[in-house]
Design a protein that fits this description.
11-stranded antiparallel beta sheet, about 260 residues, alpha+beta, single chain
């Protein structure tokens, strides 16, 4: 991993959500620049700049308004400097002061643009920003951060399989953390690159299932959470990755997202 070298990535997200009787297709385009800044206190330090976030398609007008507020809040992280451990988990945010300065402007916009709808959103974000651990827990699920660092520095013995357990956040706003068992496989490609494939399935945790049932108000619902992906590396440079998440919470809640990340030439 070459220090101070910047790589540019394009991410395309295509998906479908269903909340009660409302079903929506959506498409998002994202561009990011990522620079490795070196090893500091056993953490890999990265500077990440988001140069584009475009919500190209979202059918439901109510969900569009929610997406608009969410995207504006996430804009405070358009430039973020983070410390990652060897497992790809964010452990430190180095530019928290700059992020808080940006939040004050976003907070003013939310108050003027959506005075009623944004009240609880603002209160929740203010609480999160006062708690670094909670802030890190949430920002790790920003699309690019989550996908890029998902199997950061993970590898398997030649011809073997590695088993990983990760905690995933549900995609419906319930705030439930879902344990997922992941099966990681690796193979060498003819061009010298390495391909890593994984499959992940939800662990049947009774406490998690109970919380999801409370959220959906369905005492008999059997949740499903599945993930699949492919990562291609040239040495330690990520060339491309496919990332699919499927979540189903009973009859009325469904989400399927396909994320495609490519290195810009």
């Amino acid at each position: 991993m070459e220090k101070d070298k910047t790589f540019k990535y394009n991410t395309e997200i295509i998906g479908t959500t269903k909340v009660h009787s409302v079903k929506s297709d959506y498409k998002i385009r994202i561009k990011n620049e990522i620079t490795y800044k070196g090893l500091e206190d056993d953490l890999y330090r990265f500077n990440i700049v988001e140069s584009l976030y475009a919500l190209d398609d979202y059918e439901d007008p109510i969900m569009t308004q929610i997406a608009e507020m969410t995207n504006r809040i996430c804009s405070i992280y358009k430039e973020i400097e983070i410390g990652i451990n060897a497992e790809g988990i964010i452990e430190k945010v180095f530019n928290r002061d700059q992020i808080r300065d940006k939040w004050q402007k976003v907070k003013a916009w939310l108050t003027n643009a959506h005075p009623l709808e944004s009240y609880e959103v603002i209160r929740a974000k203010e609480f999160e920003l006062s708690n670094e651990e909670m802030e890190i827990k949430n920002i790790r699920f920003i699309h690019f951060l989550h996908q890029y660092f998902f199997i950061f520095r993970q590898s398997v013995d030649s011809g073997g399989t590695k088993y990983i357990k990760k905690n995933e956040m549900d995609r419906f706003g319930a705030g439930v953390v879902i344990p997922v068992n992941i099966n990681l496989r690796e193979k060498d490609l003819e061009n010298g690159a390495i391909e890593r494939n994984y499959e992940g399935k939800m662990v049947r945790d009774n406490k998690v299932i109970e919380r999801l049932r409370q959220f959906t108000k369905d005492n008999y619902m059997h949740p499903e959470y599945k993930m699949t992906g492919k990562y291609v590396y040239d040495n330690i440079t990520l060339l491309e990755s496919d990332f699919t998440i499927t979540e189903e919470l009973g009859e009325f809640y469904y989400n399927h997202s396909y994320l495609r990340l490519t290195l810009e030439e």
